[in-house]
Target: Cytochrome P450
Amino acid sequence: MFSTWIQFVFLPALLVTLVILSRRRIPRGLKLPPGPPPKLLVGNAFDMPKEREWETFAEWAREYGM
Model:
Protein backbone atom coordinates (compact mmCIF):
# COMPACT_ATOMS: atom_id res chain seq x y z
CA MET A 1 0.00 0.00 0.00
CA PHE A 2 2.84 2.37 0.78
CA SER A 3 4.36 2.03 -2.68
CA THR A 4 0.98 2.81 -4.28
CA TRP A 5 0.70 5.97 -2.18
CA ILE A 6 4.16 7.06 -3.29
CA GLN A 7 3.40 6.42 -6.94
CA PHE A 8 0.16 8.37 -7.05
CA VAL A 9 0.79 11.21 -4.59
CA PHE A 10 4.42 11.79 -3.79
CA LEU A 11 6.03 11.39 -7.22
CA PRO A 12 3.60 13.69 -9.10
CA ALA A 13 3.93 16.26 -6.30
CA LEU A 14 7.71 16.05 -6.58
CA LEU A 15 7.58 16.52 -10.36
CA VAL A 16 5.29 19.56 -10.06
CA THR A 17 7.59 21.07 -7.43
CA LEU A 18 10.67 20.56 -9.60
CA VAL A 19 8.97 22.15 -12.63
CA ILE A 20 7.88 25.17 -10.58
CA LEU A 21 11.33 25.63 -9.07
CA SER A 22 13.08 25.31 -12.43
CA ARG A 23 10.83 27.96 -13.97
CA ARG A 24 11.43 30.37 -11.10
CA ARG A 25 15.23 30.28 -11.51
CA ILE A 26 15.26 32.42 -14.67
CA PRO A 27 13.86 35.94 -14.24
CA ARG A 28 11.18 36.64 -16.82
CA GLY A 29 12.45 40.12 -17.68
CA LEU A 30 15.91 39.04 -18.81
CA LYS A 31 16.57 37.33 -22.12
CA LEU A 32 19.21 34.67 -22.35
CA PRO A 33 21.96 35.05 -24.94
CA PRO A 34 21.47 33.07 -28.15
CA GLY A 35 22.97 29.62 -28.35
CA PRO A 36 22.38 26.03 -29.36
CA PRO A 37 18.88 24.74 -28.60
CA PRO A 38 18.70 22.79 -25.32
CA LYS A 39 17.82 19.12 -25.14
CA LEU A 40 15.03 17.74 -22.98
CA LEU A 41 16.07 17.24 -19.33
CA VAL A 42 19.82 17.82 -19.81
CA GLY A 43 19.69 21.25 -21.45
CA ASN A 44 23.08 22.13 -22.94
CA ALA A 45 25.18 20.08 -20.52
CA PHE A 46 26.61 17.92 -23.30
CA ASP A 47 27.19 20.89 -25.62
CA MET A 48 29.78 22.50 -23.36
CA PRO A 49 33.30 22.09 -24.76
CA LYS A 50 35.98 20.35 -22.73
CA GLU A 51 38.97 21.67 -24.68
CA ARG A 52 39.67 24.84 -26.65
CA GLU A 53 36.49 26.46 -25.35
CA TRP A 54 37.18 29.77 -27.04
CA GLU A 55 36.91 28.19 -30.49
CA THR A 56 33.51 26.67 -29.72
CA PHE A 57 32.22 29.92 -28.21
CA ALA A 58 33.48 31.90 -31.22
CA GLU A 59 31.73 29.46 -33.56
CA TRP A 60 28.50 29.78 -31.56
CA ALA A 61 28.81 33.57 -31.73
CA ARG A 62 29.07 33.42 -35.54
CA GLU A 63 26.26 30.87 -35.85
CA TYR A 64 23.78 32.31 -33.35
CA GLY A 65 24.67 35.99 -33.72
CA MET A 66 26.33 37.51 -30.70
